[in-house]
């Protein structure tokens, strides 16, 4: 039988999530999903030379979307 451990879900010592963290995560989700969506349009042969720019823009949005929570928030201490 498992031991009862009341300390299994103890409170975090870092406190609650700030509004900045919530906004940055929401923005990063929009950028990542929007970047994926934009890159999916880049495989359209009717675009011609704009294919490269659509893919590059989608890739840049995705990279920025991943960089925000993993690089910016730790640097801010959030």
Task: Describe the fold and architecture.
- By secondary structure, the protein is mostly helical.
- It is built from two helices and no strands.
- It has helices spanning 19-41, 50-76.
- The protein is elongated, with a radius of gyration of 20 Å.
- The chain starts with 18 loop residues before the first helix and ends with a helix.
Mean pLDDT: 84
Using only CA atoms, what is the Rg?
20 Å
Largest sheet: none
Name the shape in a single word.
elongated
The N- to C-terminal Cα distance equals 40 Å
Strand content: under 5%
Please count the beta strands (DSSP E, at least 2 residues each).
Answer: 0
- Quaternary state of this entry equals single chain
Helical content, roughly? 55-70%
What structural class do helix, strand and pairing data support? mainly alpha
Order of helices and strands: HH
Low-confidence stretches: none
Number of helices: 2
């Amino acid at each position: 039988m498992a031991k009862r451990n009341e300390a299994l879900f103890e409170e975090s010592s870092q406190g609650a999530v700030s509004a900045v963290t919530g906004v940055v995560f929401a923005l990063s989700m929009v950028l990542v999903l929007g970047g994926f969506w934009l890159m999916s349009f880049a495989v359209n042969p009717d675009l011609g030379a704009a294919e490269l720019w659509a893919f590059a823009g989608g890739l840049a949005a995705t990279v920025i979307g991943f960089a925000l929570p993993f690089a910016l928030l730790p640097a801010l201490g959030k």
